[in-house]
Amino acid sequence: MAQIKTFSWTNPASAVARNLDCGFEIAEATTVDVTNGGSWFWSYGMPNGYYLDVDAGTITTSNGFTPLNQGDVFGCAISNFTSANPGVITASNIAAVGVAAGDTINVVGLADDQSGTSKNAQFTVASVTATTITLNENTSAYSVYVSGGSAIRVSDTNGDPVATNNVGIRGVTLGTGPVGANSAVMVAICKSQEPVV
């Protein structure tokens, strides 16, 4: 028996593509526009990005369903780390990992030029944006960032330990075709390739 997950949402005034995190690799996906009518379908074996307009009986070859498997995401993927006062880390997945001001993070797996103190260390977060983590620490005397690395939450603002969780999305990206109309109430049903154990 396959796993099944359902989602419901209301599209914004301008409907946009969206990711659905099912927690499994999909074998089938269906979306239904509850407000205006209409449904769209994709099945394993169809090319990525395709979809069947169930009502019209036509296949569209772009902006459809695309399986999504980000694999393991346990921390923020670092793309830059300044040697400055304060130090600033540029990274992705900051919101998904849940990094917030006051948290303690470990930086691991980073390559630097070894000209000073290693940036593979523990730091306290002063502030965050969608793409940056500003630290409380002065990193001017630290080595120059070269590549890679992850920022992993160790404790929250209260100093309580934080469990390391996989926040990688396994599911489907809905293109603009099967996402439904502007402001529409939508439902999606996703079935897995993986059996229930």
Structural class: mainly beta
Domains counted in the coordinates: how many?
A: 2
The CA-CA distance between the termini, in Å, is: 9 Å
The portion of residues forming beta strands comes to over 45%
Key structural traits:
single chain; 197 residues; Elongation Factor Tu (Ef-tu), domain 3; 2 domains; six-stranded antiparallel barrel; 15 strands; 48% strand; elongated
Folded structure, characterized:
The protein is mainly β. The chain folds into two domains: 96 residues, no CATH class; 80 residues, Beta Barrel (Elongation Factor Tu (Ef-tu), domain 3). It is 2% helix and 48% strand. It contains one helix and 15 strands, in the order βββββββββαββββββ. The strands form three sheets. It has a six-stranded antiparallel β-sheet, with no helix packed on it. It has a six-stranded antiparallel beta barrel with strand order 8-9-12-11-10-13. A three-stranded antiparallel β-sheet has the order 2-14-7, with no helix packed on it. A hairpin with a 7-residue loop joins strand 4 and strand 5. The chain is elongated, with a radius of gyration of 21 Å. 28% of the residues are buried. The model has no long low-confidence stretch (mean pLDDT 90).
Record the SSE blueprint.
Layout (H helix, E strand, L loop, with lengths): L1 E9 L7 E4 L4 E8 L5 E5 L7 E3 L4 E3 L4 E5 L6 E6 L6 E5 L1 H4 L6 E9 L9 E7 L3 E4 L9 E11 L14 E5 L10 E11 L2
Antiparallel strand pairs: 1-15, 2-14, 3-4, 3-15, 4-5, 5-6, 7-14, 8-9, 8-13, 9-12, 10-11, 10-13, 11-12
